[in-house]
Amino acid sequence: MVEYRPYLFPAVLLLLQTIFTILFGLYSEYEYFPVSNVTDFENPPRGVVEFYYSMFTDIHVMMFIGFGFLMTFLSHYSYSAIGFNFILCAFTVEWALIMRGYMFDWNDAKQKFIVDVRSLSTADFVSASILISMGAVLGQVSPLQLIIMAFFEVPIQVVNEWIGTHFFCANDGGESMFVHVFGAYFGLAVAFVLFHSNVLGSPLEKSRYTSDLFSIIGTMFLFCFWPSFNAGTASGIERLHAITNTYVSICASVMGAFLMSTIVRKGKLDMIHIQNSTLAGGVAIGTVATSNIGLHGAMIIGTLAGMVSVLGFHFLLPKLQDIRVHDTCGVHNLHGIPGLMAAIAGIVIVFVGNRSGYLDHLTDVCLSGGMKRTNNMQAAYQAAALGLTLGMAIVGGLITGLILRIPIFVQKYENFEDEPNWHLPEAEEANDAASLNKNLDRRFSIIPVASMNKNLQRRFSVFPS
What we know:
Order of helices and strands: HEHHEEHHHHHHHHHHHH
Strand content: under 5%
Shape: globular
Distance between the termini: 77 Å
Radius of gyration: 25 Å
Low-confidence stretches: 440-453, 455-465
Mean pLDDT: 90
Structural class: mainly alpha
Number of strands: 3
Largest sheet: 3 strands, mixed
């Protein structure tokens, strides 16, 4: 009898791809605005390709290369880490374009949603949230479970952000609450439901020199392009603030991470800290990235974020397993805690004169006063948006985790192992290569190595011993 389980993954992909194709065909429409018609370059209209495209490409590189390589640290799971990141990100972008199209970009007159470069960037933001959740359960779920998780997570994330931005009118320019906090705690909630004791102390959950090296390549890509992530949809002076604040903050988090890693690891550095905590400043600055916080403010936030993230990896990560949460990539320490720091900074900055700039983005549909909302009320809604995000992420993650436990979806093989999902180079080929190298050494070595070293010493020694 043919085993059906391996074919569920392509069957689900085919079904969903067919549905997405029909929805795009019926309800999507391009949006274009020629740059020659722009009169206000401080606030250009949507559809201006030239204004958004460069930052969109940076964000796109972050999703597919940055996140992909960052997750390759597991020595026996590198194929799966970068491969599943690839398919999950592509799937999420399609699904997010549709969901955000209906929620954010719907045109009542045409009964269609618009698609432009800006909407591609915001779809990438949604994919970042799903990839963060993937990091929490990396190696513990099958590719089918990842697709099912993303299918349910995308609508919850989009609805949460729609409520937070349209009714609460909370400002989160760098998406620290709506992307990082949401993705981290959604993933942790899923990990809680899917927890199995066999993941603890698994001999396969380890890195090696080369896998860590590939992982830090992802870190470098994320580090270089993070300013574009936080400034991707901003314009005018706010785009300048977002770029400079993020760059200074993420540099400061590198300093904080190296500093604290050396302390907690007793004079040496830990590669896990350098791969992850060095990026914490990009997350922690997100909510206030577009605000006039001063470069000193960005440095304080970034330095603290790098230090706190290292402390989380060193002390808190092992403790999560005591409450049945196995956080493979440590997303709680890179995205969760720094995201909470960003949300708190967003509440505090409201009270510092007009530096936040939040009140400039109010509309008539904002709750509690509309465009006449006070600073105190804005701070309250910033806090409410954080509470809403945590609530929807945790509840949504718990429900999604229960769905992933349905027997038809459950992974039936070893955790943190590539072999069940990939055709890998045969071990015999590796052995043959080793034998070939030894034969070549014997064939082409004229003088035995030990004898050659002695001859060289005699030949080039000025004073014979």
